[in-house]
Structure formats: structure tokens, C-alpha cells
Write a structure and sequence with these properties.
The chain is mostly helical. It has helices spanning 6-25, 68-78, 83-114, 116-126, 132-163, 166-182, 194-222; strands spanning 35-38, 44-47. Helix 3 (83-114) packs antiparallel against helix 7, helix 4 crosses helix 5 and helix 6 (166-182) packs antiparallel against helix 7 (194-222).
């Protein structure tokens, strides 16, 4: 047979490279997925082959490379939440709660003043060893202190609502908590009011909520966002 020419050699090399390239393009066999086996006791066991790897969970594209405060801002914008409207709504609820507190406390204080003689008489029956004059002084002292507390709480609440800062709401929550605790000893003078007690506690909880809300908004604003 005639010796191979350069052209024949070139064709053989080209065909060999094509075969290798076709072999490289062949996809590798995929490793089967996991197998789950349920035991009679209800427990489940996962079985996988040695080369099996779980698929990586893709990250959220719009939250990559952002700080936690920026992530919060993106979530609020994505959900269509207007922070200023939310804050204004909570301030309105706070003002209504404060107005309800003033109306109820004023009504109860007027009733205590109107029926003061009956209240002192009942106290003298409860504590017969104490002079009625002392009981009357204690009753009036509690009434005056409660009225002063109502004025202080109203002033601090109005100051917090008009300023719209975290610190005034923190002061209001502390004053409301002090009034909630101070309501308990009034039971010894037959002046304990369950409705006033729960109203003061709700005022404390809502004032603390406003404090935390404004602190979070202030933190986001310091990060460079404007609402």
C-alpha cells in the first residue's frame, strides 16, 4: 500500500481531535437524588450516594450587598409600607388613649369627691382602731396625689406626642408604670379601680411600643434614609 501522505496524516489527526471533543461534550451522569425511608415508628431516614451534593440556595438578588438597615428599607418599600402614615396612625391612637385616660380619671375623681363621706364611713368600719379624722386625711391625700398624677401623666403624654421623639415616650412609659404600681396600695383605702389600673398598664405598654418604634425609625434615618 502507498505510504500515507501529509494530507492523510492531517485528516487522521483532525478526526482524532473531533472524537476527543465529542467525548468531552458528553454530560456526566447525574447522581440520583436522596431516598427517604419511613420507619414503622414514624421516623424518616434520608439515604444518598457518596457523590451527592445538595443544591445551593440562591440568595435574594435585591438584598445582596446591603446592610441590615438597608434590607429593612427595601422590605418596607417592597411591601408598600409608608412609615410616616404608620407613625401618624399610632400617634392618633396614643392621643385617643390619653384622652380616654383623662376622661375616666376625671369622672372617677369627681365620684370620689361626691361620695367622700360615705367612703370615710366605710373606712371607719373597716379600720375601727384608727381615728376617723386620720382616715379622712388619708383619703383626701390619696385623692390629691391621684389628681396630681393624672395631670403629670397628661402633660408628659402630650409632650411626647407633640415632640415625636423616643425619649419623651420613654419618660411617659415610666410614669405610666409608676402609676400602675401605685394603684395597688389604694385598695386599702377602697379606692382601687380595676379599669384605671388596666388603662394605666395599657398606656405604659403603648408608650413603650412608641418608644421602640421611634428608636428604630431614628436608627434608619441615621443610616442615610429619608422617609
Amino acid at each position: 500500500s502507498p505510504p500515507p501522505t501529509k494530507r492523510h496524516k492531517l485528516c487522521s489527526v483532525t478526526s482524532l481531535l473531533a472524537v476527543r471533543a465529542s467525548n468531552m461534550d458528553v454530560p456526566k451522569p447525574k447522581v440520583p437524588g436522596p431516598i427517604y425511608i419511613k420507619h414503622p415508628d414514624g421516623s424518616i431516614v434520608q439515604g444518598v450516594l457518596p457523590n451527592y451534593e445538595d443544591a445551593a440556595i440562591p440568595a435574594t438578588p435585591r438584598l445582596q450587598g446591603l446592610s441590615p438597615l438597608q434590607n429593612l428599607r427595601q422590605r418596607l418599600q417592597g411591601e408598600g409600607v409608608d412609615v410616616m402614615q404608620v407613625m401618624a396612625r399610632h400617634e392618633l391612637i396614643f392621643m385617643l388613649l390619653l384622652a380616654l385616660h383623662v376622661v375616666l380619671d376625671s369622672t372617677f375623681e369627681a365620684l370620689f369627691v361626691r361620695h367622700r363621706e360615705d367612703a370615710v364611713f366605710e373606712l371607719s368600719l373597716t379600720y375601727p382602731a384608727i381615728d376617723p379624722t386620720v382616715l379622712s386625711i388619708l383619703y383626701w391625700s390619696a385623692l390629691i396625689l391621684d389628681s396630681m398624677y393624672m395631670l403629670i401623666l397628661t402633660y408628659v403624654g402630650l409632650l411626647a406626642a407633640f415632640r415625636g421623639k423616643p425619649k419623651p415616650y420613654r419618660r411617659f412609659s415610666m410614669v405610666a408604670l409608676a402609676g400602675t404600681v401605685a394603684e395597688l396600695p389604694l385598695a386599702y383605702l377602697n379606692r382601687f379601680n380595676l379599669l384605671s389600673f388596666f388603662l394605666r398598664f395599657i398606656s405604659y405598654a403603648y408608650g413603650r411600643f412608641q418608644w421602640n418604634l421611634l428608636s428604630s425609625v431614628e436608627m434608619i434615618s441615621q443610616d442615610g434614609f429619608n422617609f
